[in-house]
Amino acid sequence: MAQNTSIFAAYVDKFFKGFVGRFTEYWNGKKQQPTYLYPTMLREEYTPDLTWNSTSLNNSIVAADVVAMDSPLPLKRRGTLSRASGEVAKLGIKKSLKEKEISDIMVMESKGQQEADIARRILNNVPKVIGGIQTRVEIMFEQALSSGQILIADDNMEGLGIRVDFGYKDANKFHAIAAAWSDSEHALPLDDIRQLFDAADANSDSISDVYLSEAYFNYARKCQDVKELVATANNQVIISAATLPMPNRQKTLEALGDEFGATFHIVNNSYMVEAKNGTQTPVKPWEQGNVVGVPSATVGRLVYGTLAEDMNRVAGVSYQNSGFILVSEYSHNEPSLEEFTAAQALVMPVIDDGEHIYVLHASGTGVIDTDVDKVTFTAAANTTGKKVKVVHADLPWTAAVPVADSWCTITTAGNEITVKVSANNGSGAVKRTTVLTITDSEGNTATVDIEQAA
Can you give the pTM of this predicted structure? Predict the structure, then answer.
């Protein structure tokens, strides 16, 4: 598709640079700019060679593998199809003014509206495309920091992406000791967090900052040990520990910081992500159940390169740079007249020294189990089903029986599996068995024997 000079070239020439330099209004469906972590936690680093084999990436990335994009398996368990090679895929986003919007702007011109008002309508998409690139960078960064891995889409590989591993050590990963934090009656968040600090101390490391999702911070506030910690820190007389209220947000953060000698941060960013078909879905990129301890508030680099188009600019297209982002304004008239604002960047967040980062999986104990080891049925069909309760699983988990055993079907809801069987009373029927297998996101499994009489 040919890129032509902007329909409103005079306004673009006069106002484009200023709009790119100082947009403040509308980001990601919010009235104010969202709070990104990456600008303060990553230092920018330019490299002329942003390829998967470049020194800038190799020193911090343990592996960069080609994997399936839409696999139901957790990212770290997806099979490696090949090693990544070549250039890192660029990020790109564009938005357009359609014919009706273009016509409306021309009407504004004909009625002598202020130039600045007209320019604002023409360049309304500038903050959206710049914010779109920055949001994608933030999503990658939060995924990387909270899990040690990210999945990068590459338009040159249909259905495939690059899984990047920043080298978080298995020895520095821990689970909830007593119960997942969502189980406020049994969970012990303070003991769980202490595992990170004890391990760091044993390794001669230090933890200066701890990051966790708001959902799990709120789970922790409901747990008895955290309630008592905050009450004690505030010199509250505890008459009955069982009746302590859930402490407020700020006092909990202060008490945790004082207890562990680190600053605790709550991550609660949500972003609208647009698919190729135009549908938008809210995404919380932070791995919700992970609590992450880092040695410094600066955890890595924002590595960026120079785009080929920046060095070979298309004649007639208007360009401006916004840091590592290249913004362009142009039009085309096939199949219809449109005015485009586009942004692109060759950039990637990199977590350095991943071996000194500590992670707590507060969503489970690392041991998956069920409340029963065996479920038995009579020969008659059972369409009501019998329940199997899953306990201590790292979310999410999946359950399955062998496809060949179609006489046994399962459904899941919450932490329960309902097992149903068809009749086994035909001529010559014999007792039949199958195995229900439950697998959690850590790859841990539990099995339940299913048996039906004849």
Answer: 0.82
